[in-house]
Write a structure and sequence with these properties.
There is one protein chain. The chain is α+β, with helices and mostly antiparallel strands. It has 2 domains: 17-181, no CATH class; 270-390, Heat Shock Protein 90 (2-Layer Sandwich), CATH 3.30.565. Helix content is 65%, strand content 9%. A 5-stranded mixed sheet has the order 1-2-3-5-4. Helix 3 (63-80) packs parallel to helix 5, helix 5 runs antiparallel to helix 6 (135-224) and helix 6 crosses helix 10. It is rod-shaped.
Length: 390
């Protein structure tokens, strides 16, 4: 199953054209306005304003260029010996962006720059107060500027980082919700496919069994209708009973296709004794050997009847009915069902839908099924170990 995620914030694709235009305009306005203000206050600090305005313009598309421009602005202030107080306000959105960046390298670089900025501010203030005789003035001045710088750069970085963490938490919850929805959708698709497979198997069992019996009885009635009317009447009775039973099962299948069936509604296979009697009425010489007990119940009983129905139907359709069909049931150690009939040229390769359906039914209760030629006889054998569902 593929991982299903979505980017709630659009960070993966970078800012939109409109957002980038807003950044560029904001940076240009900042550079012009604050640059003019700084020109009136201190010499050369306008250059720091211009550099910081350029950093604001590209902060979301080129973080490493942003860092370079911000560092250059700091160098200008240190070298000139003048702090561009208004221009330094640009460090707030810059470090917020660095702290909240999706790339861990950018976040770490931003934090490192913030730490260096605090140290440089403290050292710069210490040197500026070199003429002061009081050591206390040196210490307090350096600490004051370091604290102010930390509030601006470190505080802004932390604010950006906290914002990124909150977004990650929201993203994680959204991804988990989407994953749960996708898992449920795939589960429902799997259940629908399984139900389709079960309906297909039931439909095959229903049609194959019912129409095989109807065809055999119709052929028999046609041959004996003049010579033995009673046998022909019996054949017609079997045809009628089989058709009515098939219609009931068709209604069940149609209900399963239209909507979820009520609990317990499923294709009902004939009881083994009724099935054996119906096959014998259809002209099959059927020998039944049962041993062990008690007989399976529950899911295993449904599986047993399904496999027996399909196996006897195949024997009726494809086998040589001139020879007996042998059925062995033994539930003394687990469950064993063996159906053997004389093979003829009409037997296939054993890869039909009916055999596949039988194998699926037996596998559902933890058993195995084999169907192959053994000498001149076709043998279907289902084995379910002891302790399997009953």
């Amino acid at each position: 199953m593929s991982t299903m995620t979505t980017d709630l914030w659009g960070d993966a694709d970078g800012p939109s054209r409109r957002g980038l235009l807003v950044d560029v305009v904001t940076g240009a306005v900042f550079a012009v306005v604050v640059g003019l203000v700084q020109t009136q206050m201190e010499a050369w600090t306008w250059l720091a304003a211009v550099l910081l305005g350029a950093a604001l313009a590209v902060r979301r598309v080129a973080p490493f260029v942003t860092v370079s421009l911000a560092v250059a602005a700091s160098v200008v202030q240190v070298v000139s010996g003048n702090v561009a107080w208004f221009a330094c306000l640009a460090y707030v959105p810059l470090f917020v962006t660095l702290g909240g960046h999706r790339d861990v390298r950018v976040r770490r670089l931003g934090l490192a720059c913030a730490a260096v900025a605090v140290v440089v501010a403290a050292g710069w203030e210490w040197n500026r107060l070199a003429d002061e005789r009081s050591l206390q003035a040196h210490v307090l001045g350096a600490l004051a500027l370091a604290a102010s710088t930390a509030v601006v750069v470190v505080g802004s970085w932390v604010a950006g980082y906290v914002r990124w963490q909150r977004r990650q938490a929201v993203q994680a919850r959204a991804d988990a919700t989407l994953q749960a929805v996708e898992s449920r959708r795939l589960h429902d698709l799997y259940e629908q496919e399984q139900e389709r497979s079960r309906i297909a198997a039931d439909m095959h069992d229903l049609v194959a069994h019912s129409w095989a019996v109807v065809a055999a009885q119709a052929d028999g009635a046609r041959y004996v209708v003049r010579e033995d009317p009673d046998r022909a009447q019996q054949a017609l009775t079997v045809i009628g009973d089989t058709a009515r039973s098939a219609m009931d099962d068709v209604r069940v299948l149609l209900g399963r296709l239209r909507e979820q069936p009520p609990a317990g509604q499923a294709l009902v296979f004939e009881q083994p004794d009724a099935l054996v009697a119906r096959m014998r009425d259809a002209g099959m010489d059927l020998h039944l050997d049962r041993s062990g007990g008690p007989a399976p119940t529950g899911l295993l009983d449904v599986t047993r009847r399904g496999v027996l129905t399909e196996s006897l139907t195949n024997a009726l359709k494809h086998g040589d009915l001139a020879q007996p069909v042998e059925v062995v049931e033994d539930w003394s150690e687990g469950y064993l069902l063996r159906v053997s009939n004389a093979a003829n040229d009409r037997h296939g390769s054993g890869q039909g839908h009916g055999l596949l359906g039988m194998a699926e039914r037996v596998a559902l209760v933890g058993g195995t099924l084999t169907a192959d030629l053994r000498g001149d006889r076709w043998v279907v054998e289902a084995r379910v170990p002891g302790g399997s569902p009953r």
